[in-house]
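Friendly challenge for the regulars: who can give me the structure tokens for this chain first? No prize, just bragging rights.
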Amino acid sequence: MRKKERVLEIIERLKKEYPDAGCTLDYNEAWKLLVSVRLAAQCTDARVNVVVEGLYEKYPDIDALAAADVEDIEAIVRPCGLGKSKARDISACMKMLKEEYDGRVPDDFDALLKLPGVGRKSANLIMGDVFGKPAIVTDTHCIRLVNRMGLVDGIKEPKKVEMALWKIIPPKEGNDFCHRLVYHGRDVCTARTKPYCDKCCLADICKKVGADK
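First reply, four minutes later:
Bragging rights claimed.
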């Protein structure tokens, strides 16, 4: 089976396995997803979802967060780790949204990358989840799994993985595919334990399983 044929089969099987997979960060406005994805660096989504409740209770909109003292933001987000840098980025990002974008999150990839604390992974998540545009989010689960599956060959740099996946994944499938990889990476193709290949829906077409035989 050629790589493009295999990736289509993988996409279909993961759809059946995780039909309702979506972003595991809680948000109801685009700017809140920007905040959460910055806090999620080296932190679990579950913890972020708890921490942001207190943040939004005190600062319920972009204007309030933009006007907040960085130290006050840091005091709230500290449980997510890297509190100082995350608070600084969130403050600067909200100020930029207020001053340059009239309080709206831009729907342009390059514009998103210019926001403080926003990298390619975050920008792709916003483009896919908020604006419904083609996106590939190369988080740690995505990078680990596509290497194990043989969709990329020993590539660990997020941007290089993203570029390689754009060549083989239909644009309309990319965003949901990456969400499903997160679920599969947590439940089956795990990082900290030996992957549960015996219960994997992809075992017969996975390069890692074939290599282990």
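The two ends are 18 Å apart (CA to CA). The chain has a mean pLDDT of 95. Your move, everyone else.
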